[in-house]
């Protein structure tokens, strides 16, 4: 792996996943700058990069900790020096509950979510058996996906967790996944704030009941800068802000209705042209195996008219009317991917690039951690 | 890993990728039975399973060798005891060509594809430098993706390869990727045979020129039983026949216009229900990270009315009007995936199940091998 240090990104064997380090550093700072005037912190979701080394950069830049979707992802982070991990998903089965308690026993910075009464009792029993007090947040339902229903069911669950002797109630989370990709800033903000009304009511109920509301976590890259208006809200779970991708670019931002330019795309796939037999058509070595999906299309840097389709396992298919130059077989291209999270999940390493050269190699230790 | 042997599939930590061994064995035999009356052999594409152990089962069942899409995939197969690998993609860059020659030097059963004149000369130079004679097939263009143009360009390239002293011309391949998923057997057959006409002409030109036509490879699970009509055709590159998936089931087969039932679905994902708060709606722990994509929908075994959407990283969302029973949080479900290849690429192991118990564990050593 070290053999690639110092190499030009244009000479990497392809497909290769790269992150531009200066751009990454810009994005790492930018989210905190944008939120400076608010009381809102950042608890980045690691499913975006799946790399403990990158999580540590986020924490060094001011993040209050990180989020992880799954137990195995949480394990990878904690076991590799990331001290504060909030697991946004629930642990339901006996196997997962036992492992979650082992993890909490080893790492005091592990917090897990609960969204139903039976599960709270199961966690209590396991925490007691493990001889620990486990930290728990209550996940509240926004989009009929995960979470306890808002209002009195949420309050009752929070009070139960607070009362159970081997659980410690730390607050709430609520994730509005669908609204993250709503097109247009103003429309997105209206929907996001409306969707959060029942969550805010639940928060107020809990606060009035005297519960510990130290964590009120939610939101993502699409709504990170809207949450200052939510009373008691503590931190956004943004992930994609770090890398950006074609999906997030097209939603528009507060500064630019057409393209979300709060953050700058830093993640790219280096690919090679392997066939140019047909006019206005180029074939690359990067299909579904390398860029995951093809909507919206991957963006070829420097070639605004190129349309990149990646719906074949092995091949990327580019069609165009206009091209800045003639391409021959063997030429490299650099593309911004449609959706960063699943693409990262296809690779074992991300090359950290500065001034077009490999400066470091990030291991994607959370790759495939879906359990 | 061995700790899971003997466990019930219903007790595996989820998401878990499973293959039913009896069904796998049925499919392994079935393709040869279906092709018994023809001169067509089987050279299965390993991108479907990415497991050397499963490739060996295919060869034991009568396959003439296997296909691999990429160089790294070919390396994994050859280095793990799969002796005959035809790499269907081209090696263009200096790095890949050097590695391909090293591979050929170690393993005499490695054959690679070429689709342009410059590349043939590059391969010749590298083979000479490595002190070997490298086995090469010419890939011919069917769907404007990979391959040299059919007719005289294909003939000229084949003659060049045949003439170059460090290359050995072994024949041709042509893969009609798009037609594999055409709906309806009769329509698909018409299109497949029409698309192959220029390839057959190229074959005839080469044969008349006295070239060695020992390999004429192509086709997949959608067209495997149509190629007996193609003169000189030697082997089908079917992969999905082993596992099947929702995409291939819906195309219809020769025996059943509605569902392709030549082969039986053997690959499933075990998942757990984690939320049932809303009527006619269940949430599972298997989203994009576990089942890859959601079209056509994953099929929940035993629940024909369930519609499974997997467009969220962490969660599967099931909606339904009718259900065979009531489901509670923690209950497992078993689903047939939309498209087997990219799903396998998400996992490190496939559990081999017999009579609902884990009998063996296949390592997905080709996972992530996109270079």
Can you put this structure into words, describing what you see?
The structure is a homodimer of 371-residue chains. The first copy, chain A, has 2 domains: 1-20 and 246-366, Lyase, Ornithine Decarboxylase, Chain A, domain 1 (Beta Barrel); 65-233, Alanine racemase (TIM Barrel), CATH 3.20.20.10. Chain A is 29% helix and 22% strand. Chain A has 11 helices and 17 strands. The first copy, chain A, has helices at residues 21-34, 52-60, 71-79, 94-106, 117-130, 152-163, 185-195, 197-208, 246-249, 288-291, 340-344; strands at 16-20, 41-42, 66-68, 85-90, 110-114, 134-139, 167-174, 215-218, 235-236, 267-275, 281-284, 299-300, 307-309, 316-319, 332-336, 349-354, 357-363. In chain A, strands 1, 10, 11, 12, 13, 14, 15, 16 and 17 form a 9-stranded mixed beta sheet that branches. In chain A, a hairpin with a 5-residue loop joins β10 and β11. The radius of gyration of chain A is 22 Å and the shape is globular. The two termini of chain A are 28 Å apart. Chains A and B meet through β4, β10 and α10 of A and β4, β10 and α10 of B.
Fill in the keyword field for this structure.
17 strands, 9-stranded mixed sheet, 11 helices, alpha/beta, 371 residues, TIM Barrel
Task: Write the topology of this structure.
Two copies of one chain form a homodimer.
Chain A: E1 16-20, H1 21-34, E2 41-42, H2 52-60, E3 66-68, H3 71-79, E4 85-90, H4 94-106, E5 110-114, H5 117-130, E6 134-139, H6 152-163, E7 167-174, H7 185-195, H8 197-208, E8 215-218, E9 235-236, H9 246-249, E10 267-275, E11 281-284, H10 288-291, E12 299-300, E13 307-309, E14 316-319, E15 332-336, H11 340-344, E16 349-354, E17 357-363
Parallel strand pairs in A: 1-16, 2-9, 3-4, 4-5, 5-6, 6-7, 7-8, 8-9
Antiparallel strand pairs in A: 1-10, 10-11, 10-15, 11-14, 12-15, 13-14, 16-17
């Amino acid at each position: 792996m070290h053999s690639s240090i110092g190499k030009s990104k244009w000479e990497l064997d392809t497909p290769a996943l790269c992150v531009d380090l200066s751009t990454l550093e810009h994005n790492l700072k930018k989210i905190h700058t944008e939120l400076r005037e608010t009381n809102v912190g950042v608890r980045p979701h690691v499913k975006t990069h799946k790399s403990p080394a990158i999580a540590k950069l986020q924490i060094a830049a001011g993040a209050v900790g990180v989020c992880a979707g799954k137990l195995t992802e949480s394990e990878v982070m904690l076991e590799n020096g990331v001290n504060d991990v909030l697991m946004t998903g629930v642990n339901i089965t006996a196997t997962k509950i036992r492992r979650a308690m082992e993890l909490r026993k080893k790492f005091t910075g592990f917090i897990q979510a609960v969204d139903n009464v039976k599960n709270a009792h199961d966690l209590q029993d396991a925490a007691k058996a493990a001889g620990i007090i486990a930290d728990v947040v209550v996940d509240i339902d926004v989009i009929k996906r995960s979470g306890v229903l808002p209002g009195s069911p949420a309050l009752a669950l929070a009070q139960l967790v607070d009362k159970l002797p081997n659980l410690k109630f730390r607050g709430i989370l609520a994730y509005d996944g669908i609204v993250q990709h709503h097109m247009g800033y103003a429309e997105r903000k209206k929907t996001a704030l409306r969707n959060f009304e029942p969550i805010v009511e639940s928060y107020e109920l809990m606060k009035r009941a005297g519960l510990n509301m130290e964590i009120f976590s939610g939101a993502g890259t699409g709504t990170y800068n809207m949450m200052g208006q939510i009373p008691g809200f503590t931190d956004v779970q943004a992930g994609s802000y770090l890398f950006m991708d074609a999906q997030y670019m097209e939603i528009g931002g507060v500064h630019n209705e057409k393209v979300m330019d709060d953050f700058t795309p830093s993640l790219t796939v280096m690919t090679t042209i392997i066939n140019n037999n047909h006019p206005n058509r180029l074939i690359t070595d990067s299909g579904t195996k390398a860029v995951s999906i093809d909507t919206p299309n991957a963006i070829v840097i420097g070639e605004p008219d190129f349309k990149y389709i990646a719906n074949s396992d092995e091949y990327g298919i580019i069609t165009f009317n206009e091209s800045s130059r003639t391409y021959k077989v063997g030429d490299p291209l650099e593309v911004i991917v449609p959706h960063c999270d699943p693409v990262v999940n296809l690779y074992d390493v991300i090359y950290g690039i500065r001034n077009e050269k490999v400066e470091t190699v990030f291991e994607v230790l959370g790759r495939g951690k879906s359990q």
